[in-house]
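the two lines:
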Amino acid sequence: VSASKPTDSNNEKKELQFPQILKLDDDFSLIQRFIEGDETCFKNLVHRHKEKVRNIIYLTLSNTDSVDDIAQEVFITVYKNLKSFRFESLFTTWLYRITINKCRDHIRKVKIRGIFTPMKEDHENLYESQTVYSDVPEIMHKAIKRLPEKLRTPLLLKDIEGLSYQEIAETVQCEIGTVKSRIFRAREGLKNILKPLEQELKG
Amino acid sequence: MKKRYDEIELLSAYIDGELSHEEEKTLEEKIALSKELKEKLAGLKKLKQLTQKAYKPITESPYFETRLTAEINSSNPVFVKLKKYSPIIGAVFGSLLL
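prediction for all of em together
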């Protein structure tokens, strides 16, 4: 019995080749026109990429609370620095890197704030909690949320956003080998978290 | 033990379509001969599917761009200067109209 081929990115890459070139060209030409003084091009860039940015923030934080505030900060940073964009990498790589860094700043701020506020009795422990989870996506969401950010973000950028290991490495600023290892460790961690819930997941 | 760990790490990259053709071929040969690897592979595929279902896309934010434009304009030095001198500019325009 031979193992079935992965359905993921190889085939999709071939299909997406042409539109990706167009997209790349479009982003670059919009930036070029913005540098030359056409401010409306920035609006086009925002319109084109805002939902992806909002989604990455949502995935990184695993909640929707501050998504729009952080996304605003991301695009303000882009606006302020766009004129010095060097056209050495895809615009999206740069944009997603800013997004991840803003999310990490936010996580740091929340942690610091947490030191000065009383601990909440928040029993997020999936299997010790009395809550009955009938919804599989909900179980998964809570389980993923328990992973450390540095494992969770690469996993979600791969499995939900469909980024390649190369793109993830450029976004989170680490080596491809590290991305591979973190995604693997995230999956191992998830398996351990979900072990006591196997029955619910089968149902 | 280390070898097994490395193989499972490769399986994880395999389901992501991130192995070279050569690595893929070698791993597929190993999978064909190992019940344990087949089970691990099936488990990882299932986990990936479940992960993909865990997050629904968030709803669109209709005023996002309007708010962003306002934020940028309010921090734009030209706009700030214009705002500062707006009573004078207004008075000049008003007198011109009259």
